[in-house]
Amino acid sequence: MSRAEVTPGAGMTGEAGVRDETGVTGKGSAEKAGGGAPRTPSLLWSLGLFRSELSVTFRRWRTLALLAVLAAVPILVGIAVKIETSDGGSVGAGGPDGEGPAFIAQVTNNGLFLVFTALAATLPFFLPMAVGVVAGDAIAGEASAGTLRYLLVAPAGRTRLLLAKYATMLVFCVVATLVVAASALAVGALLFPLGEVTTISGTRIGFADGLLRALLIALVVAASLIGVAALGLFVSTLTGSGIAAMATTVGLLITVQIVDQIPQLHAVHPYLFPHYWLSFADLMRDPVYWDDLVRNLGLQALYAGVFGSAAWARFGAKDIAS
Predict the structure, then answer these.
(1) Which residues, 6+ apart, have CB-to-CB distance to 166 below 8 Å?
(2) C-alpha distances in angstroms, 238 versus 38, 47, 132, 235, 319?
(3) C-alpha distance from residue 102 to each of 85, 94, 99 (Å)
(4) Which of 21, 31, 106, 263 could bridge across to 113 with cysteines, CB 3.0–4.6 Å?
C-alpha cells in the first residue's frame, strides 16, 4: 500500500519534496492520489509524519553534537570528583536542600549519586539550551531552508505538522535527559562503588530502589523541559530564520533564569518556568515531598498549553512564503 510521506528538513541536504514509503522522491500527494484530488490524512500517515520528523531530527549533526556534549558533562564531573578525592579528601558537605553540592558530597560513597549530580548540573543550562536549539529550529529552520511549503503540500495540515514537531521535541527532551543519566550511571559505576543509597532525609534504601528513583528523577527532569520546548516552538513560528529563532529562545531562557535569581522580583518567581526545576531533589527524601514537584509539573503544563496554543494560532495564520 503506497503512502505519501513528506521528508521534513529535506532542504538541509539540498533535497526538497515528497517521498513515498520506499523513500523515492515523488511528485506530491495530490498527484499520487490520482486526478489531483487530495487525500484525507489517516492515523497511519500521521504516525509516518511523526516517525519521519524523529528520523530527521536525530540524524542531524547538530542534534548529535548536542547529545554528545550532554553525555560529556557527567564524564567531566565524575573525573573531577575522582581527582579531587584521590588523596582521601572530600568535595564538601553541600547545601541543606540536597541540590547539586549535596549530591556531589555523596558521589564518592555511591556512584549512583553522580546521576543526580549530573542532572542538577545540566538542568539549569545545558539541557534547556539543547531543547531550545532544537525547538527553535523546528519551523523556522524549515522556512529558512525553503522546505516548509513542501511539507504542507502533503495532506498533513498545519495542525498535524505542528503536533508532529512538538511531539518530536518531547521525545528529544526524554532522550537528552536519559543520555545524561545513562552517561552518569556508567561513569559512576566505573569510578565509584555502588550500593545502598542514603536519602537526603538520612534513611537508607536499597540500590534497586535508588535506581528506580534515579529513573523517576530523569523523567521528572524531562517533563521540566516541556515548557521550554513549547516556548521554542512558538518563537520558531515568529521568524523565517532558524538561527534567529534558536538565539532568541536561548536568550529568553537565560533572561528568565536571571530574573529568577533577583531577590527583588520574588513575587514573580513562582510563575517562571525554571523556578521549581531543582525540586526533583525532593524525590530523594523519605518520605517524598510532593508539593514543589506538583507545582513544577503544573507550571510546565501551563507553559506548554499557553505557548503551544500561541504557536498553533500563529502558525495557522502565517503566510508561508518559503
Answers:
(1) 138, 229, 230, 233, 308, 311
(2) 29, 26, 15, 5, 11
(3) 15, 4, 6
(4) 106
**Would you state the torsion angle of the CA atoms of residues 59, 63, 64, 68, taken in this order, to the nearest 10 degrees?**
-170
- Whether 218 and 116 have beta carbons less than 8 Å apart is answered as no
pLDDT tier at 157 (50, 70, 90 boundaries)?
Answer: confident
* Residues 6 or more apart in contact with residue 122 via CB below 8 angstroms: 70, 73, 180
Cβ contacts of 58 within 8 Å, gap of 6 or more: 64, 172, 175
Q: What nine digits make up the cell of 135?
A: 525547538
Cell 534504601 locates to: 205
Among candidate residues 128, 167, 135, 172, the one with its CA nearest the CA of residue 260: 128
Mean pLDDT over the full length of the chain: 79
C-alpha cell at 103: 549530591
pTM score > 0.85 for this model?
no
pLDDT at res. 150: 62
Helix axes 226-236, 157-191, angle to 10 degrees: 140
Per-residue pLDDT tens for 174-230? 999 999 999 999 999 999 888 888 888 888 889 999 999 999 999 999 999 999 999
Task: Let me know: does 280 contact 220? Beta carbons within 8 Å.
Answer: yes
How far are the Cα atoms of 139, 304, 310 from residue 245, in angstroms, in the given order? 9, 18, 15
How far apart, in whole angstroms, are the C-alpha atoms of residue 178 and residue 115? Answer: 10
Percent of the chain with pLDDT over 90: 43
Distance CA 307, CA 3 (A): 32
